Amino acid sequence: MVDDNQDAAETIAMALNLENFTVATAFDRNTALAEAATFQPHVVLLDIGMPGMDGYAVSQELRARDQTNSLIIIALTGYGQPEDKARGKAAGFSDHLTKPITPDLLSTVLRKHLAGR
User: Whole-number mean pLDDT of the chain?
Assistant: First the structure.
C-alpha cells in the first residue's frame, strides 16, 4: 500500500490484514520502489496524488524494472475522472479504484486480480 497519507495507508493495511493479506506500507516514492523490490508483492495499491513523484510515475518506474514489471498495480486514489483513468492505464495501472472505497469492494477486486496467480 503506497499513500502519502499515513493514516489512510495504515487503515487500509489493517483492513487487508484482517482479510489475511500480507501488507507492507510505504508513504513515498523511494520507499515504495525499495519495498517492491525487497517485499516482492503480487499487488501494489498506489495513490496517484503524491508529492514529488506521483503515482503515474511510480507505476511507470515499476513497469520499467525487470523485477517488478509484472506486478498488479491498482490505483487507489481520489482522482476518478475519465482522463485520470486513461492516464493511469497508459502509465501501467492494472485497475483504477476511486476513494472512498469499502473494504469489501477492495477485497473483491484484489481476489479477482489474484485468482489466476
Answer: 95
